Amino acid sequence: MSWWGGFVHRHRWWVLLASILLFVASALVLSRGGTLNNSNTFHFESSQALTLESQQLPTSIANGFEVVLGSPSLTVGSPAFESAVTAALAPLGRDSRVQTILMPPLDSETAESSLISTDRHWAAVEIGLNIPTFDAATQVYPSLRAEVHSDVLTVHAAGDLALNSAFNTRSEQDLQRADVSIPAALVLLVIVFGSVVAALLCLGVGLVAVAGGLAAMYTMAHVTDVSTYALNVVVILGLGVAIDYSLFIVSRFREELRRQPSVEAALGVTMRTAGTAVAFSGITVAVGATALLFYSGTILTSMGLSGSFMVLISVVYALSFLPALLAILGDRVNRWRPGSLLRVFRRRGAVAAGGAATTGTTSATGTAAASGATAVGQPSDPGGHGFWARLANLVMRHPVAMLLPCLALLLLAGSPLAQIHLAEADITLLPPGDDARQGTQLLTAQFGQGNAIDVVLEFDGSPYSPGNVAIAYQLGQRLTTFAGISAVTSYVNEHGVSGVAAYQQLYADGLAGLPAADRAGVSQLTGSSIAVLRAYTPHPESSDQAQNLVRYIRAHDRVGGARVLVTGNTAFDMDYVQYMLDQTPAAVAYAMTATFILLVILLRSLVLPLKAVLMNLLSLSASFGALVFIFQQGHLSGLLDFSPAPLDPTIPVLVFCVVFGLSMDYEVFLLTRMREVWREHGDNRRAVAAGLQASGRLVTGAAAIMVTVFLVFGLVSSVVVIKALGLGMAIAIFVDASIVRALVVPALMRLIGPVNWWAPRWLRLRSDRRESAAG
Predict the structure, then answer these.
(1) DSSP per residue over 537-586, as a string?
(2) pLDDT tens for residues 557-570?
(3) CB neighbours (10 Å) of residue 334?
(4) DSSP-derived 3-state class of residue 372
(5) Model pTM score
(6) Were 568 and a residue from 337, 453, 511, 719 both cysteine, which residue would form a disulfide, CB within 3.0 to 4.6 Å?
(7) 119 CB-near residues (< 8 Å, 6+ apart)
(8) Which domains does the chain possess?
(9) Cβ count near 397 (within 10 Å)
């Protein structure tokens, strides 16, 4: 890395040109865009059954949506209701993109239809489109939905197309609203550096890196499915990580400018120290994100890949584009210092800067005043006279008294995690006032017969053969005896037909022997080789009673001559959560093991990496406790505009894989500074105090920027997944940078003592050889 710093300095204009060309290429890719969607591919029982249903059962609204219209004063059958529905749908009837409009009978007060609500105040209309693919239909849906409106009736849309469009639209709107994080980050950077030029450098690298990350994401979208949430993850990670990495490199460069005889030497040392830390930190964060690849078939895989590419691109720009600019600017990196900020830094020089240079004075270039606290914590001044060194020494004088309250506080913050309830995400991920959410809730509450559990029979031949009819009839009769099932609808449960022989006779000629009125209903429940026995239960989909019923059905649904699969929202929820739980141990073990190995290579110690991994788990436990407290138990739901609900498994998994790497950022920067002092003096207490003094202010400033970015996304996002991700990450980083790094880490390192730096002889020798060569 030292050689790389010299190389960049000698060829700074060429490196800058290469970085600009990479940015231009990213902009060209972004101009092409790409289609994002939230598709999953699973292979568990309920998913297999759903696939069979989608392949063999007919649907009247393929690539379409539903419109729900109603009024508290008008009812189906009244002329006013019928005319209002007709007028609202008239624009769709003239739209060439609409293929079919299936309406219930609206001219009769006694007509029965599944498209008429139980209270007869609502009617559902199925809109079929002549658009070939779901993705294409999603693109045109907003314009179609805008055509349906009424001054008399309340109108809502529903269905998968409406929900998918809602998630896409709101994700894009959330991203636009989160733009406020950019000026907020700039203000914090100016406060940290006291230099507008240095602040703009860091922000510029962040924005350029985000463009590269988005380009990588859209490139992936052309060859595989990429989740709409990946867009938000890339921007959140890009702004936070790239700005943080740039902050540490710029800060170390300004510090080395005062020590080294030339800009080239300063850049070489900066790359060898801060550059190495950034490289390892970036790899660590990327490794954490790649743990999401263990959840194959879910939207998490695309989010993991997108996040990993984003972090690696941030590292590339931080180690090429940024040092090239630093080589060109030299001492001018300290230009444009706001007068008010300069006075603040001068007044607080002894405390905030730890005795940096001489308080209130500047060099000819103004470097010392602009650098602030970066002048402290040097190996040549390890006594630790600044705020962070005094804090470290205070903690190390009373390590047990400091450690126990902190651990108790962190465990208390994580205690709600014991009550976590996981369930598949549903429409509650959207805000309560969302049109598609309200329409879907109306369909469930007003049109359904309760929670439907589909028992799918897959035969070797036609479901209408005598033998297969007998199998279906036997299972159907058994289902009606199960406690908790209120009704069973199937092709062997027709009114006026009794006994297996009668059904075998009825289907002797397939559907041809059925009355025309019954034919359509039966065709919705039978395919070329499957039959669906739809059992209804009054128990809510996510209730323990419904889940127990699914387990009971699966334990007693075995029949000879057919494969039996159970699906429906409850069954899918159970299978999905179990799948996520099954993959989690391997993902967690991978992230922790890979991180441990990387830190061993960087720190040449076995104890410090283990301590770092354990400290990360403390930060994460507090974050998970907060997620349960807020999003599951419903605290702050009114303020944040969401509905309390069980956590979707993707939320804690996503937070773990992203935050586990991000939290390691500060551990890496903190411990590398401590290690520099340890190698020079061999004094553990001095290393802790001087290392914390050298990096404490920067870690705090970097954490403040990252927390601000994450918090903005958490507060402005309307989709619960991104809201929870933003708030969970902000809480974890805040806890990590304040309680863990400032208090717990110094206390533990004091208790462990010189053993912190122990390593096997072969690792020490290799470290000595490499660092001697670098020196």
Answers:
(1) ESS-TTSHHHHHHHHHHHHS---TTSEEEEESHHHHHHHHHHHHHHHHHH
(2) 888 889 999 998 89
(3) 25
(4) helix
(5) 0.80
(6) 453
(7) 446
(8) 1-32+195-332 (1.20.1640.10), 59-158 (3.30.70), 387-432+579-775 (1.20.1640.10), 435-574 (no CATH)
(9) 11
